From TrEMBL:
Pfam families: FUR (PF01475). This is Transcriptional repressor.
Length: 138
């Protein structure tokens, strides 16, 4: 993987380039689906300890480089953000899709439909997960 791409991404999000951040970011760039903390630990083969992975994910999340993805099992996963995200906030009103065959969760370029809430309710975050079979497994 080209370090230039990840260096540029880190710089764009005002993050210092470190070997740990490079390794985790390279993983997100190689995979086209959401990753759990455990997925990341397996992929990096104990090169980084659990706390370092957690801190790196938290930093990426706080800076707007990745966003949270909830799956059907209540597990938290992470995916790269699009260009609209910043340290000021995430903009992820898009649908996530989990394949029931391969288990991968992907961000789809489909907006979450507007849901009219009852009076007195105020949404702060919206998540929509659709389950089925992805195009690769179909």
């Amino acid at each position: 993987m080209n370090n230039g791409i990840s260096d540029t991404l880190l710089k764009n999000f005002n993050l210092r380039s470190t070997p740990n951040r490079q390794e985790i970011l390279h993983l997100f760039l190689r995979k086209n689906y959401a990753l759990s903390h455990g997925d990341i630990e397996k992929e990096i083969d104990n090169a980084l300890d659990r706390v370092t992975v957690y801190r790196t994910l938290k930093t990426f999340l706080d800076k707007g480089l990745i966003h949270k993805v909830l799956d059907d099992e209540g597990s938290l996963k992470y995916a790269l953000c699009n260009e609209a995200c910043t340290t000021a906030g995430h903009h992820h009103d898009h649908v996530h899709f989990k394949c029931t065959k391969c288990g991968q969760t992907n961000c789809l370029n489909v907006e979450v439909p507007l849901v009219k809430l009852p009076k007195g309710y105020r949404a702060t975050e919206t998540n929509l997960l659709i389950q089925g079979v992805c195009e690769r497994c179909a």
